From TrEMBL:
Residues 35-173 form the Thioredoxin domain. GO terms for molecular function: antioxidant activity; oxidoreductase activity. This is TlpA family protein disulfide reductase. Pfam families: AhpC-TSA.
Amino acid sequence: MVVNFIQFPQLMRNFTIAVLVLVVLMGCSDESPKLIKGQPMPGFILDRLESGSLDFPNALRGKVVAIRFWADWCPFCESEMKNIEPVYQQNQEQGLVILAINVRQDRKTAAAFIRKLNISYDVLLDRDGEVARRYGVIALPTTFIVDRQGNLHTRILGESTPEVFHKIVGELL
Protein backbone atom coordinates (compact mmCIF):
# COMPACT_ATOMS: atom_id res chain seq x y z
CA MET A 1 0.00 0.00 0.00
CA VAL A 2 2.80 2.43 0.84
CA VAL A 3 4.42 1.62 -2.49
CA ASN A 4 1.28 2.74 -4.33
CA PHE A 5 1.31 6.11 -2.55
CA ILE A 6 4.95 6.59 -3.45
CA GLN A 7 4.25 5.67 -7.07
CA PHE A 8 1.37 8.15 -7.35
CA PRO A 9 2.44 11.28 -5.44
CA GLN A 10 0.45 13.56 -7.76
CA LEU A 11 -2.74 11.60 -7.10
CA MET A 12 -2.21 11.82 -3.33
CA ARG A 13 -1.44 15.52 -3.51
CA ASN A 14 -4.64 16.15 -5.49
CA PHE A 15 -6.65 14.02 -3.07
CA THR A 16 -5.24 15.91 -0.08
CA ILE A 17 -6.03 19.26 -1.70
CA ALA A 18 -9.58 18.11 -2.49
CA VAL A 19 -10.14 17.04 1.13
CA LEU A 20 -8.78 20.35 2.45
CA VAL A 21 -11.00 22.34 0.08
CA LEU A 22 -14.01 20.29 1.20
CA VAL A 23 -13.23 20.97 4.87
CA VAL A 24 -12.91 24.70 4.20
CA LEU A 25 -16.16 24.78 2.23
CA MET A 26 -17.97 22.93 5.02
CA GLY A 27 -16.85 25.68 7.38
CA CYS A 28 -18.37 28.25 5.02
CA SER A 29 -21.77 26.60 4.81
CA ASP A 30 -25.06 28.46 5.18
CA GLU A 31 -25.15 27.42 8.83
CA SER A 32 -23.31 30.63 9.74
CA PRO A 33 -25.59 33.65 9.98
CA LYS A 34 -25.33 36.48 7.50
CA LEU A 35 -26.66 39.49 9.39
CA ILE A 36 -26.31 42.51 7.14
CA LYS A 37 -26.88 46.16 8.02
CA GLY A 38 -30.27 47.26 6.73
CA GLN A 39 -31.64 43.72 6.52
CA PRO A 40 -34.37 42.25 8.77
CA MET A 41 -33.23 40.55 11.96
CA PRO A 42 -34.23 36.93 12.61
CA GLY A 43 -37.28 36.56 14.80
CA PHE A 44 -37.45 34.59 18.03
CA ILE A 45 -39.72 33.81 20.93
CA LEU A 46 -37.97 33.58 24.30
CA ASP A 47 -39.14 33.29 27.89
CA ARG A 48 -38.84 36.39 30.05
CA LEU A 49 -36.92 36.03 33.30
CA GLU A 50 -39.91 37.17 35.34
CA SER A 51 -42.86 35.59 33.51
CA GLY A 52 -44.33 35.12 30.07
CA SER A 53 -42.49 35.25 26.78
CA LEU A 54 -41.58 37.82 24.14
CA ASP A 55 -42.06 37.48 20.38
CA PHE A 56 -39.43 39.53 18.52
CA PRO A 57 -39.94 41.45 16.28
CA ASN A 58 -43.75 41.11 16.29
CA ALA A 59 -44.26 42.49 19.81
CA LEU A 60 -41.92 45.43 19.22
CA ARG A 61 -42.81 46.82 15.80
CA GLY A 62 -42.07 50.53 15.56
CA LYS A 63 -39.56 50.44 18.43
CA VAL A 64 -35.79 50.85 18.42
CA VAL A 65 -34.50 47.65 20.00
CA ALA A 66 -31.12 46.92 21.54
CA ILE A 67 -30.60 43.15 21.78
CA ARG A 68 -27.80 42.38 24.23
CA PHE A 69 -26.39 38.88 24.72
CA TRP A 70 -24.78 38.24 28.12
CA ALA A 71 -23.90 35.67 30.80
CA ASP A 72 -23.01 35.97 34.49
CA TRP A 73 -19.42 34.79 33.90
CA CYS A 74 -18.76 37.64 31.42
CA PRO A 75 -16.55 40.24 33.15
CA PHE A 76 -17.81 43.18 31.05
CA CYS A 77 -21.51 42.31 31.05
CA GLU A 78 -22.24 43.48 34.59
CA SER A 79 -20.75 46.97 34.23
CA GLU A 80 -22.21 47.51 30.79
CA MET A 81 -25.68 46.38 31.86
CA LYS A 82 -25.60 48.86 34.76
CA ASN A 83 -24.18 51.64 32.60
CA ILE A 84 -26.86 51.49 29.90
CA GLU A 85 -29.75 51.61 32.39
CA PRO A 86 -29.68 55.47 32.49
CA VAL A 87 -29.69 55.55 28.68
CA TYR A 88 -32.73 53.27 28.71
CA GLN A 89 -34.51 55.39 31.35
CA GLN A 90 -33.81 58.53 29.34
CA ASN A 91 -35.05 57.11 26.01
CA GLN A 92 -37.73 54.49 26.68
CA GLU A 93 -40.57 56.98 26.16
CA GLN A 94 -39.14 57.79 22.70
CA GLY A 95 -39.39 54.10 21.78
CA LEU A 96 -36.16 52.46 23.02
CA VAL A 97 -36.46 48.85 24.17
CA ILE A 98 -33.56 46.83 25.57
CA LEU A 99 -33.66 43.04 25.53
CA ALA A 100 -30.92 41.50 27.67
CA ILE A 101 -30.68 37.89 26.50
CA ASN A 102 -28.97 35.50 28.88
CA VAL A 103 -27.13 32.78 26.96
CA ARG A 104 -27.04 29.13 28.07
CA GLN A 105 -27.79 29.60 31.74
CA ASP A 106 -30.75 28.58 33.86
CA ARG A 107 -33.35 30.94 35.28
CA LYS A 108 -31.94 30.76 38.82
CA THR A 109 -28.42 31.76 37.73
CA ALA A 110 -29.70 34.62 35.57
CA ALA A 111 -32.04 35.87 38.31
CA ALA A 112 -29.27 35.93 40.94
CA PHE A 113 -27.08 38.00 38.62
CA ILE A 114 -29.84 40.43 37.60
CA ARG A 115 -31.02 41.00 41.19
CA LYS A 116 -27.85 42.90 42.07
CA LEU A 117 -27.92 45.14 38.96
CA ASN A 118 -31.16 47.07 39.58
CA ILE A 119 -32.10 47.26 35.89
CA SER A 120 -35.59 47.83 34.55
CA TYR A 121 -35.34 46.53 30.98
CA ASP A 122 -36.46 43.08 29.81
CA VAL A 123 -34.32 40.02 30.53
CA LEU A 124 -34.87 36.98 28.30
CA LEU A 125 -33.55 33.41 28.53
CA ASP A 126 -31.83 31.69 25.59
CA ARG A 127 -31.28 28.45 27.52
CA ASP A 128 -29.90 26.36 24.65
CA GLY A 129 -28.06 29.22 22.92
CA GLU A 130 -30.06 28.80 19.71
CA VAL A 131 -30.86 32.50 19.26
CA ALA A 132 -27.25 33.48 20.01
CA ARG A 133 -26.09 30.98 17.39
CA ARG A 134 -28.55 32.28 14.78
CA TYR A 135 -27.33 35.80 15.48
CA GLY A 136 -23.69 34.75 15.10
CA VAL A 137 -22.70 35.68 18.65
CA ILE A 138 -19.08 34.65 19.17
CA ALA A 139 -18.26 36.65 22.31
CA LEU A 140 -20.08 38.30 25.19
CA PRO A 141 -21.30 40.92 25.48
CA THR A 142 -22.59 41.39 21.94
CA THR A 143 -25.24 44.00 21.15
CA PHE A 144 -27.40 44.44 18.07
CA ILE A 145 -29.20 47.74 17.54
CA VAL A 146 -32.36 47.27 15.47
CA ASP A 147 -34.22 50.14 13.79
CA ARG A 148 -37.97 50.78 13.96
CA GLN A 149 -38.52 48.63 10.85
CA GLY A 150 -36.83 45.60 12.45
CA ASN A 151 -33.62 45.92 10.42
CA LEU A 152 -30.06 45.67 11.71
CA HIS A 153 -28.49 49.09 12.25
CA THR A 154 -25.37 48.34 14.31
CA ARG A 155 -23.54 45.39 15.85
CA ILE A 156 -21.31 46.02 18.86
CA LEU A 157 -18.91 43.22 19.76
CA GLY A 158 -17.67 43.55 23.33
CA GLU A 159 -18.20 46.27 25.88
CA SER A 160 -19.57 49.66 24.88
CA THR A 161 -19.67 52.95 26.74
CA PRO A 162 -22.96 54.65 27.62
CA GLU A 163 -21.91 57.56 25.38
CA VAL A 164 -21.45 55.33 22.33
CA PHE A 165 -24.67 53.46 23.07
CA HIS A 166 -26.60 56.73 23.50
CA LYS A 167 -25.18 58.14 20.25
CA ILE A 168 -26.16 55.05 18.23
CA VAL A 169 -29.70 54.77 19.58
CA GLY A 170 -30.09 58.55 19.33
CA GLU A 171 -29.60 58.28 15.55
CA LEU A 172 -32.69 56.06 15.39
CA LEU A 173 -35.06 57.67 17.90
